[in-house]
Structure formats: C-alpha cells, structure tokens
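Record type: monomer structure entry
Structure origin: computed from sequence
Chain ID: A
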Amino acid sequence: MLPVFGALLLTLPLMWSPSGTDEPTWSMSAVLIYVFTTWVGLIVLALFFGMAVRRWAYHWIDAPYAPTDDREGH
C-alpha cells in the first residue's frame, strides 16, 4: 500500500501545470524540494511501519523484543 501511495505522491508534480498551457506554475526548485521531502517522508513511514510490524509479530509469537540465538551449543 505504501509504494502505491508513494507513486501517487511522486506523480503529483506532473499534474501541476494548468491545462492548455506549457508554462509551469511551480519552479523547478519547488518541485525538487517536494520530491525529496516526499521521498524522506516515505522512508520515515516505512521505518515506523517496520518497527510496528516487528513489535506486533513478537507480541503474537510470545517472544521477547530482542532476537535470540536458537543455535545449539551457544
């Protein structure tokens, strides 16, 4: 779901010019700031989602939050 949301957000600058004209309404620097801010925001959302899934998975398997070494002899 997050990749689709990110693709939609990153395609928004393509629709910012008014119809019927070739003149852009936003400067290139504003578009680049938008794209990189969106990119960083998606990375942060993916980080929080990963942490939430890890906590949820450990909760459901009744394991501690720290991974353990399951090999014999250690």
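Annotation 1: Residues 29-63 form one domain.
Annotation 2: DSSP finds two helices and no strands in the chain.
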